[in-house]
Design goal:
This protein is mainly beta. It folds into two domains: 224 residues, Hexapeptide repeat proteins (UDP N-Acetylglucosamine Acyltransferase, domain 1, 3 Solenoid), CATH 2.160.10; 107 residues, no CATH class. Helices cover 9% and strands 37% of the residues. A hairpin with a 2-residue loop joins strand 36 and strand 37. The protein starts with a strand and ends in a 12-residue tail after the last strand.
């Protein structure tokens, strides 16, 4: 039988233990689940599946995050940290076995993920990792914002097994850095210890990367070699072009989800659903005069020049790719609609932003 604590639903034999525990609203914890730490913070709208175990010194699970069934997150040692932020997803039967694991907002980690090692694994915002991947942190593993990693990929910070006493000279333990917006396409890519993959680089399917990859380049093969002369991963997009493209994205969003509830404005759309109202608007420059009140709205702009701390207005600055996170429903819906191929924005306040919900 399930037990209810305010709006927290506990399945049979599930429990949350800690010296300092803070539970938000609308939390569901499945049967036989255990969350155990010195300090535990589970924010609103979190779902933890059946037979999942989370054990660390400090545990933070952000707003809207789902951790599916049969996940084993066992961080052994002193001062261990498990921290996943807003609207993240961890698929079933995943295992995380490192002393420090941190992930930003909107991180999707699909089923049967294995994260192991003795050093931290740090993941930025808006990262997508497919099923059956291995993230090894024998040394520190850092994955930046907006990274995409396909299925059955593996990242290694160590290559050790041959017996040194018998003269084996293959031995390496070194950190790996995957910079922002890297895309590891498809399956069966292997990243070797000590490698840095530069921002906006693309790794094609089946590559074995044994040395650093330059930013905005494309590599393929075993060992991977640069083929940027054949495949150019990115072209330059002007701010005006981004602004025009975002209008098309938002028109698609409105027509897909709110066609019968939206009316056209001069610079965007007004959406009414029952008693709830919100706006999506476009402004060349967002400032305190042009915002016109602290009502629920999304503002896309080429320049954010506001000075007020709005409670319900989310401002997306196309020049910086930053947004003022408010956790309104329309904001979360748009962020999920844009991810992952259309556009990725990042919280303006700090790297791993924690804010109270406004609706």
């Amino acid at each position: 039988m399930e037990k209810k604590l305010e709006t927290v639903v506990f399945g049979k034999n599930s429990r949350v233990e800690g010296k300092k525990v803070r539970l938000g609203k609308s939390i569901t914890i499945g049967k036989n689940a255990l969350v155990k730490g010195r300090e535990v913070c589970i924010e609103d709208n979190v779902v933890i599946g059946d037979d999942t175990e989370i054990s660390a010194t400090d545990i933070f699970i952000g707003f809207g995050t789902t951790i599916e069934d049969n996940c084993k997150i066992v961080l052994s040692g002193e001062n261990t940290i498990f921290s996943v932020h807003d609207n993240c997803f961890l698929g079933h039967d995943s295992k995380i076995l490192v002393p420090v694991f941190e992930a930003g907002d909107y991180v999707t980690l699909h089923n049967h993920l294995i994260v192991n090692g003795v050093k931290p694994c740090i993941i930025g915002h808006n990262v997508w990792i497919g099923q059956n991947c291995i993230l090894n942190a024998r040394d520190k593993l850092t994955i930046g914002n907006g990274v995409g990693i396909g299925t059955y990929n593996s990242i290694w910070t160590h290559g050790t097994h041959g017996e040194l006493l018998e003269g084996c000279n293959i031995f390496k333990i070194a950190p790996v850095v995957i910079e922002d917006d890297v895309w590891m396409v498809g399956s069966f890519n292997v990243i070797s210890p000590g490698v840095t993959i530069g921002r906006k680089a693309v790794i094609l399917t089946g590559s074995v990367v044994t040395k650093d990859v330059a930013p905005s380049s494309c590599v393929a093969g075993n060992p991977a070699r640069d083929i940027t002369d054949k495949i150019q991963p990115y072209v330059e997009i002007t701010l005006d072009e981004k602004y025009k493209m975002m209008k098309k994205f938002m028109e698609e969003f409105v027509q897909t989800y709110y066609a019968s509830k939206a009316s056209k404005l001069e610079n965007g759309w007004s959406i009414k659903e029952g008693e709830s109202k919100c706006e999506i608007i476009f402004l060349d420059e967002a400032n305190d005069k042009s915002i016109k009140g602290d009502l629920t709205k999304l503002v896309f702009t080429k320049k954010n020049a506001t000075t007020k701390d709005y409670k319900k207005v989310t401002i997306f600055d196309l020049s910086s790719k930053k947004y003022t996170k408010k956790r309104t429903r329309i904001e979360v819906e748009v962020m999920k609609f844009l991810l992952y191929p259309k556009a990725r924005f990042y919280p303006a306040e700090d790297a791993f932003n924690r804010k109270e919900s406004t609706d």
